[in-house]
Amino acid sequence: MSAAAEVLETPCGRIRITVPRQPGRYYRLEWYEHGGRCQTTAGTTEMKMRAKVAHVLARLDRDAEPESRRPVAEALEGYLAFMHANHSANHFIASRRELRKLFEPYLKLRCERLEQRHARDALNSSTTSNTARNNRGRINGLLHWGHENGYFSESQTQFLRGYRYSPKRPAPTRPTRKTAQRRSGESPRFVTPQEIPTLEAIVRLGEEFQAHRSGGRLGIELAHSAGVRLGEFFALTDEVVDLERLTIDVDWQILSQSGLSTRRALPKFGKVRTTSFPSVTTTGYELVEALAVRLDEVEAERKAGTNPKGLLFPASKGGWWWASGFAQDLFNPAAEAAGWERLEFLDAHGKVRHEWVHTMHSLRHRFATDRINIYGLTVAELMIIGGWENSQVVWDRYYGRSADALESGIAKLRDRTGPARVS
């Protein structure tokens, strides 16, 4: 390199590199940014100088849009407003809580100054690998939305690409409910038999629910026979049940997030549906008879003012359940008394935590497998009454058994009358 000054042209400005005339002296950089002149040293070697030039050029490139000079807090609030308008209330509130916590150290930073290490440190602040997986999507969502709206550059959207979650404190070893080995051909989403409670376990849980609360057995039998999610279960009223058609209209779910203007929202994916139930459940429970009795009770409770919403399964004070209260007051003691298996592990703070192998949502897995194995529903039929997003999800979770394909493949060879001949 000659002793004369070298000028690099860039799309966002230019950098003048002044080369030292004597060895051991510093290279100097000069450029214009935001209408003002900026200067800095760039090391004593050509390698250090070029690294500094690349760093400045990258920042100038990020500064192509005026929004890039706005604070990260502004980009975050804009993204949250977008999420509020386009996502469910549950998803929005959980994402708002996590994103504000992840980016709290960088809210006053200009968007152009947000670096790769900041995004990775935010991801690594997640307490568990499961939380990190969700937070990766949230961070990428913010960066991509910010790029589309001028806050971040395209290169900033790639900050987490190929990066693995690496917490400073090792994530706790959380037990998994999937204890069986997956076979070739089965989707990672396939629900194994170990994840589905037995009919005997469901009966024991229902009896314990009944011991804790009137109508408890009915609630468990209806949950595993009609396939309603927990939030939908909380929202069921006497008006949605049709005993003649054996159907339930699932029009609402009850959210369990604080800070909502209303807790009642459309079911998951924003789709209402009509599900069905048998007159006698797979455990032998007379469901229609019990429902008829409960509907008469709800009408009387409504008139007495103790159940103004007409809920099939109201909380203690006659309103909607909260998920935490339902677990603490009803499910946890009932499951423990019924002998349901519970896993134990240490969280990120070294505290002992417990997690049920089977939960209330596991009853929905029993609903799906019973509808397939006992009633012979097709993928499309199960998707419609169960309220899944698409048929592929239903196939992957409940129909995609490699054992079925294996048996049919063996049968095709066994049924041949003789060996295949090659002409």
How would you portray this structure in words?
This protein is of the alpha+beta class and 423 residues long. It has three domains: 59 residues; 90 residues, Orthogonal Bundle (DNA polymerase, domain 1), CATH 1.10.150; 175 residues, Orthogonal Bundle (hpI Integrase, Chain A), CATH 1.10.443.10. Helix content is 43%, strand content 11%. It has 14 helices and eleven strands. A hairpin with a 2-residue loop joins β3 and β4. The longest helix is centred in the first third of the chain and has 20 residues. It is elongated and about 95 Å long. The mean pLDDT is 86.
Number of strands: 11
Shape: elongated
Strand content: 5-15%
Q: What's the overall average pLDDT, rounded?
A: 86
Topology:
Blueprint: E1 6-10, E2 13-18, E3 28-33, E4 36-41, H1 46-62, H2 72-86, H3 89-102, H4 116-124, H5 129-148, H6 199-212, H7 216-226, H8 230-235, E5 241-242, E6 247-250, E7 253-254, E8 264-265, E9 273-276, H9 287-304, H10 323-337, E10 342-346, E11 352-356, H11 362-373, H12 379-386, H13 391-399, H14 402-414
Antiparallel strand pairs: 1-2, 2-3, 3-4, 5-6, 6-9, 7-8, 10-11
